[in-house]
């Protein structure tokens, strides 16, 4: 790859990530979103996190996928009960360790 094309590629990627993040701030900063859209956008991070975590849960042990499911359930229960990331992490780790 030639040095000039490398820098054009870097510039293109920078613009490709910068513009979608900046334009809504510049154009729509004074506008208020409908309430239903605001509520919907608040749950997007949780949905994305679930989509990233769930495949790992079911592939912890390919022969026995229920171990990962139980570990995920233990983490969810501990997070709900104590609202503490460390408690959820320890609960999931111990569950998978004991069952493996």
Task: Name some characteristics of this structure.
82% helix, 100 residues, flat, mainly alpha, 2 domains, 5 helices
Model description:
With 100 residues, this protein is mainly α. Helix 3 packs antiparallel against helix 4 and helix 4 packs antiparallel against helix 5. The chain contains five helices and no strands. The longest helix has 26 residues. It is flat and about 55 Å long. It folds into two domains: 31 residues; 68 residues, no CATH class.
In brief, what are we looking at here?
This protein is mostly helical and 100 residues long. The chain has 5 helices and no strands.
* Count of separate structural domains: 2
Number of helices: 5
Q: Name the overall outline.
A: flat
Please trace the helix and strand order, writing H or E for each element.
HHHHH
Q: Which regions have little confidence, pLDDT < 50, spanning 5+ residues?
A: none
Evaluate the radius of gyration: 21 Å
Mean pLDDT: 92
Instruction: Say what oligomer this is.
Output: single chain
The strand count comes to 0
Distance between the termini: 48 Å
Q: What class would the helix/strand composition place it in?
A: mainly alpha
Q: Helix fraction?
A: over 70%
What percentage of amino acids are in beta strands? under 5%
Characterize the biggest β-sheet: none
